[in-house]
Specification:
- With 465 residues, the chain is of the alpha/beta class.
- The chain has 3 domains: 136 residues, no CATH class; 105 residues, NAD(P)-binding Rossmann-like Domain (Rossmann fold), CATH 3.40.50.720; 191 residues, no CATH class.
- The chain is built from 16 helices and 10 strands.
- The strands form 4 sheets. It has a 4-stranded parallel β-sheet, sandwiched between helices. A two-stranded antiparallel sheet has the order 1-2. A two-stranded antiparallel ribbon has the order 7-8.
- A hairpin with a 5-residue loop joins strand 7 and strand 8.
- The longest helix has 37 residues.
- The protein is globular and about 70 Å long.
- One of its GO terms (cellular component) is membrane.
Length: 465
Amino acid sequence: MLRIANHHVSKITFSLLIFEFCISLGAVYLGAMVRMLDHSYPSFVGIEHFFFTAVTFALTVVFSLSALGMYQINFREGIRNTFLRLMPAFALALTMITMLFYVFPDLYLGRGVMGLVFVFSASGVLLGRVLFFKTSESSLLKSRIIFLGTGKLAQECHALALSNTAHHDYDIIGFVPVANEETCVLAKYILPHSEGIVALAAKHQADEIVVAVQNRRGAQFPIQDLLDCKLNGVKVIDAAAFFEREACQIRVESLQPGWLVFGEGFNQSFSRKFSKQIFDLVVSAFLFVLTLPLMIFTASLIVLEDRGPIFYRQERVGKNGQTYSVLKFRSMGISAEQANTPQWATSNDPRTTRVGSVIRKLRIDELPQIINVLKGEMSFVGPRPERPFFVEQLCKEVPFYNMRHSIKPGITGMAQVRYAYGASVEDALQKLQYDLYYVKNNSLFLDVLILLETVQVVLLGKGAR
């Protein structure tokens, strides 16, 4: 894994993205060269804006692939499924590049050239992915790991390693038991370790050892063996770091105040706050102008359906526990909470109107929160704001819940794009673990990644309620 601005990025995903950017960039030059074989067609190589056109096209292709989840890699995906998934991504890229040419006509190269460019780019990306999957079958892209421990924590780490194939393809060697620990894994996966962990790691050519043991005290814990493994080039990490890296979660049960104080991250410096403020203003102003016609159309539909108010104002808890009124398009009936008692929203909530069910699935109901961002009450990316009634309840039941209020809440965030919509204390705990990851590792780079995942959520309808 690469670490960019405190965020773990898969080397495989990063390499594939760079490769496909270069393929798309080269496709523009190749398309122009082929078209120039007809001597009646003008040369593009000397045109001042040609390079910017090539870069714009390559960025548009990479953005479209990201927006449709093409970098959440399935190592077992066949050529046919890859082709079928690439088609809508390039259709989106075609739509976007056509709009850009309309706004910036100097970038336009002509239909003949762009037709060739799209053929070359799509073919190159498909061929590159075929080679990529063939390489993955040879185990060159797999990481060989050993889990130290056989208890519940080791079992959870094992399940995560098996399920997180979007960024990694693991070759799990097995589990090394520790004395006085329960066994929750199948006996066939337990490794004989009479010769010691160092010899075991060398024998199986392990790349990494994940320490998944709850109790690390006492003579039974092989601290010296783990140090020897590290000195011999085998990476050693604990379960908390494994979950943070692989799932973008900070596990609440593994948190200690000392770790929060002395650990890395939790950047609240002036430069970070300033850059985030500029990012919020620029993105929000651009999105407000872009979606204004859609918001006017949505407001008209809401009025036509039941003649009720367009907006729904609700008190939410913001930074440092300060309350403010969040602004959303009304998606429920006028008397949704007649008893004046806050209720968790649920999937297929019967209180939702017909217009409301559509705008909630497409996340259009969230758009008026842009005004909250412009007023400085929210950020574009951050933890989802909750109502004071629920915050008071959750602070009592969920450890470290109040830490999410150390930064401004956001319209979108890590929990919103990674976790299906939840409506319970258990769901709040799972979402908090994503929020804590964002609070710890927040950066401009992570904000951009979350925005890309948000586009994917909107286009594919993930997590709608």
